[in-house]
Amino acid sequence: MFPRPIQEATAPKRYAYYAVVVIAVILWLLPLLAVMLTSIRSLEDLNAGNYWGLPREWKFSNYAEVFQQTPMARYLLNTVIITLPAVAGAIALAALAGFALAKYRFRGNLLLFCMFVGGNFVPFQILMVPVRNMTVRLGLYDTYWALIFFHLAFQTGFCTLFMRNFISTIPEALLESARVEGANEFRIFWSIILPLMRPALAALAVLIFTFIWNDYFWALVMVQSDAVKPVTTGLSALRGEWVASWQLISAGSIIAALPPVAMFFILQRQFISGLTLGAVK
Amino acid sequence: MNSTQQQSYLQPGGALRAKYRWLTNINVVPWIFLAPAVIIFAIYVVIPVFESFWLSLYDWDGLSPTKKFIGLDNYAGLVQDEQFWTSLKNNVYWLVLFMLGPVCGLAIALLLNQKVFGMRIVKSLFFFPFVLSGVVVGLVFSWFYDPTHGLLNTILGIFGIPPISPLSDEHLVTPSIIAAGLWPQIAYCMILYLTGLTAVDPEQIEAARIDGARGWKMLWHVIIPQLRPATFIAVVVTIVGALRSFDLVQVMTDGGPFGRSSILAYFMYQQSITNFRMGYGAAIATVLFLIMSVFIAFFLRQMIRTERR
Amino acid sequence: MIKRAVTSSLILVLACLSFTAKGEKLVINSNQSDPAPKAAFTKVVEEFKKQNPDLQVEFNTMDHEGYKTAIRNWLTTEPPDVVIWFAGNRMKAFVDRGLLDDVSDLWQKNNYDQAFKSTLPAMTVNGKQWGIPFAYYQWGVYYRKDIFEKYGISEPKTWDEFVAAGKKLKENGIIPLTIGTKFPWTAAGWFDYLDLRTNGFDFHIQLMDGKVPYTDPKVKEVFAKWKELLDAGFFLPNSSNYSWQESVPFLMNGKAGMILLGNFFTQTIPDNMHDKFGFFPFPTIKADIPDAEDAPVDTIHIPAKAKNKAGARKFLEFVATPETQQMIAEEIKELPANQNAKPPADPFLEAGAKLLANAKAAQFYDRDTNPEMATEGMKGFQEFMVYPSRIDSILQRLEKIEERVFKEQANEASSRVKGESNGGESSLKLVEPNSEKTLLGVR
Fold first, then answer.
1. What is the Cα C131 distance to its own chain's centre?
2. d(CA C320, CA C328)
3. Which regions of A23-69 does DSSP assign to beta strands (E)?
4. pLDDT, tens only, B246-269
5. Is C9's pLDDT higher than 70?
6. Do A146 and A45 fall into the same domain?
7. Strand ranges for C221-263 from DSSP E
8. What is the Cα–Cα distance from B152 to B166, expressed in whole angstroms?
9. Is residue A167 part of a domain?
10. A162 and A120 in one domain?
11. Please, which residues 172-211 of chain A have a Cβ atom closer than 8 Å to chain B?
12. Which residues pair with C25 in a beta bridge?
């Protein structure tokens, strides 16, 4: 593996490495520490300009207050309901499409690939009116499905690109030998490609989960009622016309950030495994 | 394995009935795989994009049921609009400076690519900025830059540098926002490279080590070529991110001071939504899209060329 | 694990979708996301629910900025039954496009033209009323009484006294005027007042309506006055760095002395500092120009496509009662729009009520003029504050935009109002110039 495993290095180098990592983590997380500090300040503190010093009052109660001032639990649930199906759907569709684009020659392969890549680059604000109108026409406005379908569709572009690139690194020989043994294409996909894709699927799941989880714009456009609102629009309801409750918003943002980080932590092993990707049978 | 009662498309013995066999025809199969993704993507993305191109030829406020056809007038207006050129220039800055994202992302991925106890937690910590909402990131960085209460000037003061006010200085504002945007972006690239590093062929590394390659040489000649797919995605994603960063601009400067930090995506949003000029906004989006397509085309060509090799 | 999550989430979704409402439903969407107004409206909704047990009321609060985007989507597709919005040009934008319901019948039935005499002009378009006002507030200068006392400064009434006060503060190391122009509407407050005091209410409204070019010498006079303050270094340096909320710490820490803002400012004063603050109206510049103020009005409306208009009307009537208006005013520390409601016992509001009793009132720059003009105008003010020497190029730019924007507005209006002989002229007037209608009281 690269770089050289640190266990092989001499002791001073090893300790230097640990020290560097620790310092890097602290520097990297300084802004995050600021957010955390803000989340336990009082509003008076912020209005007095005390952004970086120690809080004058330690208001851990802000975290409870977030749940009291807004239906935060409901928002979190809504976000889960919207994100999980969309992530699952986008990855599934993209795996299928990526496989087709990567491993088959047919007319229109390149064109379709360009379509997926291109659609990804669209500044999504401009889709607002057509997509909103279509959602209303389908009767899905202000429902979970509005957001699930949209995110599923939109993320498919990026996912297909990602999958196609990954699958194209799988050696052709693997598929050929399976075909020779009489497996049909669907079998090949299910039993050979998918298992090899695990690290890519995991990485993609984390990324897409985070995108959809943090989406604010589309939640604003497609959903009105508190019953269906996800956590992003829910939290920004704490930004008033005059006074922004930054301390509550910070607390809420930290809470809202935990699920994607948890997902990353859980699926990390998948990245590390998957060394079979380079193997040729 | 399957009961013939449930699966009437199978003959006894498991093979497909003749009339369904065309489904496994190698020319048909890819289309079956592609169909769901293509259909839903076309409905939600492709068709609305074309609708927007078409919309840019109209004068519409986004609310009335009537629109007025004005041909290319919106584009003519753009050329004369000072704010358009400022936003375009800022987008160029973003594109160039944001490329630090993949570079730093790779550096951090290499740093963390060790099987040390607790590395999993460290990796998750490095990933954290990416999952924070853009609003909060922008907020914290604006407090960092605050000329009176912010940390930046405190640090500069230690070195004896006089205080600066990045966000209200015409020239410093865009790099300052880009710095804020890089924080989550580097985390993103780091993940991509960590994934990529797991796919690097250990045999090639061993072979190169035996040949005496180490450090930079190893990195440049052996590792980076193998990271090409990850680099491709990282660059694509960074370009897309550079051209989109909406939340940060809105929270940190509202496009200011007086429009100097506005980017095309933000300019488009202001025109379409705040100023009730949907057609004009669509024209801006079209221009933005065309710019992005130049990059996509370039990269697609590169990628396909290397694959054909 | 993923599969289980997907199936369980799908089940949850289906369960939520199949939930049916009992009783008639009334949906209210609110942009009152600040803590105090949100509490106020929650109370109002609770009271209303008690009085109307057969109605199932759904009350949604959205953040103030996001609401402005979302409301455009709702009004044209599937709106709630009640929306909160602003009077003036903002309301007119929707009325002109047929998106709000005419509630003149409610006004006539309940004699609201008496109870809401002062806000009547702001609620009227084409002779009809389109919503119910519930609160408004004054703008003016809030200052540190204790700092003024320390340096022997009294409340300035005229421009010269004001400048002298500022100079005294500056001599003693205090920043005279704090301001945060990251979101440039605070600069628009300065423009409004300087224009109202230099050129009068009628001229100001004409400028808002696009009838006077920005390059007019009278407009330049406004900026010349502004420049006086800028040259003297009265304003907080690097103000475009700060939102108004971030400019407040300077006042709290005693580093700054005054701020020109609306009464919502008082929400940020900590309890133990209330007696350190005072209020005075913006000083007079020309003695012969009668006083005029900015007093934005908050309102509620019924969308034209609302489903439950009967229930919505009941809610509007409920909010219009003096009791409800008083309750809201108490909570949000603003003045009730209903003349029969008692304003809260707050020294700042009392000063405000006195101020607005005899003055003509404007809605504030970004509510009085065309939205696009407002955005560009405010950007121009922000730029002027940093580079006063660029005044000519700024005004020329605003002039060009004004021409285009109001021409388009007139064209749209005339194509909408088919067959009206005046073209678009009459529908543009919101407040009649030279009329005696005031916001508060009748002259």
1. 15
2. 11
3. none
4. 778 888 888 878 888 998 888 888
5. no
6. no
7. 256-262
8. 10
9. yes
10. yes
11. 184-186, 189, 199-200, 203, 206-207, 210
12. C56
A241 with C34: Cβ contact below 8 A: yes
Residue C211 lies in a domain: yes
Report which DSSP code applies to B222: I
Residue A266 with chain B: CB contacts under 8 Å: none
Cα-Cα-Cα-Cα torsion A213, C73, B43, B185, nearest 10 degrees, comes to: -30
- The whole-model pTM stands at 0.79
Specify the 3-state DSSP secondary structure of C22: coil
What's the start-to-end Cα distance of chain B, in Å?
A: 43
B174: which residues sit within 8 A by CB, 6+ positions away? B90, B93, B94, B260, B261
Q: Tokens for C33, please give them.
A: 């996301």
- Measured CA distances, A123 to B163, B233, B242, C64, C357 (Å): 37, 18, 11, 24, 50
Give yes or no for a contact between A239 and A252, defined as CB atoms under 8 angstroms apart.
no
Q: What is the pLDDT of residues A153-189, one digit of tens each?
A: 999 988 898 888 888 878 888 888 888 888 778 888 8
* CA dist list (Å): C267 to B204, C135, C248: 67, 16, 11
Q: What share of chain C is helix, strand, coil (3-state, %, to 5)?
A: 55, 15, 30
Q: Which long-range CB contacts under 8 A does B204-213 form with residues at least 24 apart? A: B205/A1, B205/A2
3-state secondary structure of B16: strand
Alpha-carbon span C308 to C82, nearest angstrom: 9
pLDDT at C425: 34
Give me B197's structure tokens: 């590093």
Residue for token digits 């193998």? B226
Q: Taking the domain B80-308, which CATH number applies?
A: 1.10.3720.10
If one counts the domains in chain A, the total is 2
Question: Got the DSSP string for C34-75?
Answer: SHHHHHHHHHHHHHHHHH-TTEEEEEEE--HHHHHHHHHHHH
Please provide the distance, in angstroms rounded to a whole number, between the alpha carbons at the two ends of chain A: 21
What is the C-alpha separation between C252 and C270, in angstroms, rounded?
9
Q: Which amino acid is at B293?
A: S
Q: Which chains touch C (3+ CB pairs under 8 A)?
A: A, B
User: Are B153 and B137 in contact, with CB atoms under 8 Å apart?
Assistant: no
Place of tokens 């008033």: A240
Interface of C with A in 208-267 (CB under 8 A): 244-246, 248-250, 252-253, 264, 267
Q: Are residues A78 and A52 in the same domain?
A: no
